[in-house]
Structures are given as C-alpha cells and as structure tokens.
Amino acid sequence: MRKIYIFDTTLRDGEQSPGVNLNTKEKVEIAYQLEKLGVDRIEAGFPAASPGDLAAVNAVARAIKNSSVIGLARSRTQDIDAVREALIGAQDPCIHLFLASSPIHRQHKLRMSKEQMLEAAESAIKYAKQYFSKVEFSPEDAGRTEIDFLCQVTEMAIKAGATVVNIPDTVGFLTPYEYGNIFKTLKGNVNGIEKIQLSAHCHDDLGMSTANALAAILNGADQIEGTINGIGERAGNTSLEEVAMALETRQDFFQAKTTLNLSEIARTSRLVSKLTGMVVPGNKAIVGANAFAHESGIHQDGMLKEKTTYEIMSPETIGLKDSKLVLGKHSGRHAFREKLIDLGYELSEEQVNTAFNKFKDLADKKKEVSDEDIRAMIEEKLIDTQEVFKLDVLRVSYGNQFVPSARVSIHTLEGSVLEEEAEGNGSVDAIYNAIDKATKEEVELSDYSIKSVSHGKDAQGEVHVILAQNGITEQGRGVSTDILEASAKAYIDALNRLIEKRKTSTGRRDKMSLI
Ligand SMILES: CC(=O)SCCNC(=O)CCNC(=O)[C@H](O)C(C)(C)COP(=O)(O)OP(=O)(O)OC[C@H]1O[C@@H](n2cnc3c(N)ncnc32)[C@H](O)[C@@H]1OP(=O)(O)O
Ligand SMILES: CC(C)C(=O)C(=O)O
Ligand SMILES: [Mg+2]
Fold first, then answer.
1. CA nearest 244: which of 32, 34, 46?
2. Using CA atoms, how far apart are residues 102 and 410, in angstroms rounded to an integer?
3. Which residues take part in binding Mn(2+) (predicted)?
4. For residues 260 and 38, is the Cβ–Cβ distance under 8 A?
C-alpha cells in the first residue's frame, strides 16, 4: 500500500487563523502531541515573522525527535537565514520556501515577470540548498497559475535542488477534478518529477479542501499538507484527520494510507482546540461532538442491532470511548429501553411504555434528555402511591407590583374536579394556598427545597417538600422543566402520601414499583 506523508502546518498556517497566537510553550506542547500522532513533518512557524516565532520554532526543533521540523521562508536570504537560526538543534530539519507563480500574484503583489519569478525562486532554492539537504518549494497560488508555466516552475525547482514541490491551492479556488488534473499533468510532463515528492496544500474557501487533497492523492501526490481541525487562514486548511480517516476507511478505493497513530486523533484535536481557542463545530467530520452521536429512533435502533448500519468507522479508532446515543424527541423505544437498562432499571413492557410517553413529553420541552432527567422522571414515582389528587391545570399570575395568585384544577380519585384560586406571598405560596383550598387538607409545609436536575437553561427543576399533619410527616417530590409546576407536583405528591399514611397503622408501604 502506498504511503502518504503527512505534513502538519497547524503551527504555521493554522496559527494564521485570525485571533490565534501560540506562544513557545503552547507550540511545543502541540508539537509533542503531533509527534505522538505520528505526523511525518511539522511546520513549526515562520521564523522571519518575529523574534518570538523564531524562538518558538527553535524550541520545537530542539524538542522533536521523530518528525522532521520545518520553517517557512519567503524567497529572500534574510528569511532563509532566520530559518537556519531557528532550526539549529533539529534532528531532521527542512526549509519550506515559497514564491507566488500565478498571474494575479506576479502582476499585483510581487510585480515580477515570469522570468523574474523563476530567477528569484531558483536563487533562493540554491541559497537554501547550501544549508539544508531537504528543501520544499511552493509556487504560491499554483492553483491559478498557467499550467505550462507551473510545469516550468516545477522543473526549475527540481533542477535547483528542491526535494519536495508543493502545489498550493492558496485561495481554495479549484474543484477536485481540476486540482487532480494538475498533479496528473505535472507527473506526465515534468522532467525529473520522479526524483522529488509532490505535495498537496489546499484551502477550504469553497469547502473542497479535503476532496481536493484526496483528488491529488488519486493523481500521484506523495504528501498532504493540512492542519488539525482544519484551522488556518480564512476558511482554513485541509483537515488532516479527515484525510487520514478517509484513507483508512476507504483503503479499498484509495489504495494508500498514512502511518499516523489514529487513536491520537481525538486527543490532538482537543489540545489544538484548547490552545488555539478555536472551537470545533459539533457537526465537524471525525472530531465534532456529534460525529459519533445518534439521536433519531430509527438510527438508534439500527445502531443497537448492528453499529455498521449507521457508522462507517468506529469512534475507538480515533481514540474515543464509544458512540453516543443521545435521547431527544426523535428517539424511539429501543434506545429508551437500552438507556433504562444502562441506568440500572428493570421495568416491565407496560412500565417502559408509560415511561416512554412521559419521556416524549419531556423531550418536546428539552433539546436533549440527560441521564439525570431520566432518573428523575422514573424515580419521581418510585413509590407506588395511590393518587387521591392529581394536578391537572396550574395557572400562576405574577408581577413584581402585584400580589401573586394561582389557580389550580385537581382531579380526584373519585372522578371529580376541584378548582380553586388563591393569593400568596409569592408564586409558590399562592399555589400551595390554592391546593389547600381545593383539597380541604390542612397541612403544614415544614420543608421546601429545589435543585436543578440537569444542566442548561432548559434544565429540569426538582422540588422536595415535607408536609406535616397531626404529627404525621411525609415528603413529596416533583420534577418539571418549570419550577412552579415541580413545586405543585411535589406538594400534591406529599399530600397523597400523607393520606395513605393516615390509612395504615405503620405508615410504611412495602409495595415498590418504578413508575
Ligand atoms: C499563503 C501564505 O500563507 S504565505 C505566508 C503568510 N504568512 C505571513 O505573512 C505571516 C508572517 N509575515 C510577516 O510577519 C510579515 O509579512 C513579514 C515579516 C514576513 C514581512 O513583513 P514586511 O517586511 O513588513 O512586508 P509586508 O508583509 O508588508 O509585505 C510583504 C512583502 O514581501 C513580498 N513577498 C511576498 N511573498 C514573497 C515571497 N514568497 N518571496 C519574496 N518576497 C515576497 C511582497 O511582495 C512584499 O514586498 P514589498 O515590501 O517589496 O512590496
Ligand atoms: C506558504 C504556502 C504553501 C501556503 O500556505 C499557501 O499557498 O496556502
Ligand atoms: Mg496555506
């Protein structure tokens, strides 16, 4: 199987992302992780950019033993000298020179003719070659360069001593078909092309950077340049984890592979995100939080029966523990039952169905239903109490300039409906006064506490109350996404328990069921 070399430029092109600035310590920490990941080449920075970057590249050069360390330079002697200084102490140093070759860049930016561009690049490569055995040359904006001139530039670079010629689609302009064809043309037309490695460097301006890199591989590229999480200038660079996993997953098609330690991908992604401050979108391929998460019932059912129904690669390959089945409003019974088993509940089919209906009601109110939500929902009815009273409707009126009032409608076991309205010192007090009026139970609220069951603004609130009546006390519990409803439910739950306790001499129940 053909090996594809991985050239990581997270610390150079990745650092060119607006807002990202890595200090020496951070660059070395990322470089160590890239070495663990097994990248062949690490472009550590642009030493001529600043004394700080020169020092950072030098620190990386001295720290890294198993990957080649590279510094970027314009085709100017002072930049090359800066890379020479920065790579002192490197085990396997390499310089990366560039000079734009496209008509737009030649005319407007460099103000050079084709001949001047060729001459400047040639003399820079020859100068660098005196100090480095490994020289990579990039005709910047190769993607928009006349193809015959690109062949000429590549041949010049090979003759001058370049060991790698990189073909950057600097502005992410090309389609995979066009980019692949450039490699095919260079392979077929440039003298000495077999002596060097051809490299692909793509940008994601049109969202085609990974597809372009793969097209280059299909047409003979030996090396792929890119960054972790696809960070980089503007829309970013090719995501190396995407290329690596595409080759791994579709070896049958590409007949090529990297030598990366794939199980380090997730860890590397997290570190780069943490130190650059660039958050990985949830739906990002391979490393996004949802890349191995399944929310809909039909998919979850398939996953439970056979993971390959909905996963083309396993999360373990990139160093994650497992796929996630996220419970939400699209989930079905199979996944819900599995979650109950995971959480340690053994329920009958009828109980699962009742719980599932409640879960769907909750899922309509919440984006994601957490384990804590499910526990709270199941355990809300842990003890099988006869529901003498059941809350039907609750309406609360509150304004900071007004006395709060509440209206409740309660169903009784006998089938009647009790409706009452009351005011109170606060909304909860008004609710409890209305319940007292409706049920005609005289109780004392001896404790009230509330806590959040899960996280986020839509978290469920769990209310605990203790009610006392003629020396008997009972507790009640209510859970809802609305804390006033949770308060009402907890109070009525405690009332039902009190009534049941009154009926028995011991006051103890021995019948337990989950819902
Ligand atoms: C596609 C890429 O990602 S290329 C890499 C981009 N990365 C960076 O630019 C980050 C680091 N850059 C820097 O810190 C600064 O731009 C420096 C230190 C390199 C240069 O700064 P300055 O000397 O102030 O020049 P400035 O950046 O304003 O302009 C760039 C100059 O380099 C020239 N230039 C651009 N590319 C090259 C090149 N590959 N080889 C030679 N000269 C070049 C430009 O034509 C311009 O020259 P001019 O001053 O004669 O007009
Ligand atoms: C320096 C070069 C290779 C570059 O980053 C680009 O052209 O995108
Ligand atoms: Mg680039």
1. 34
2. 78
3. 13, 201, 203, 237
4. yes
Pairing assessment for the beta strands 2-3 and 256-257 based on DSSP bridges: parallel
Per-residue pLDDT tens digits for 220-274 = 999 999 999 999 999 999 999 999 999 999 999 999 999 999 999 999 999 999 9
What pTM value is reported for the model?
0.82
Q: What is the CATH number of domain 389-503?
A: 3.30.160.270
ipTM entry: 0.98
CATH topology of domain 2-276: TIM Barrel (3.20.20)
153 vs 189: CA distance, rounded Å:
12
- For CATH 3.30.160.270, list the domain ranges present in the chain: 389-503
Pocket residues: Cβ below 6 A from ligand 2 = 13, 72, 98, 138, 140, 166, 168, 170, 201, 203
Interacting residues of 404 by C-beta distance below 8 A, sequence separation 6+:
396, 397, 398, 423, 424, 425, 426, 427, 429, 430
Instruction: Tell me if 141 sits within 8 A of 101, measured CB to CB.
Output: yes
Which ligand 1 atom lies nearest to the CA of residue 97?
39
pLDDT of residue 515: 34
pLDDT of residue 507: 35
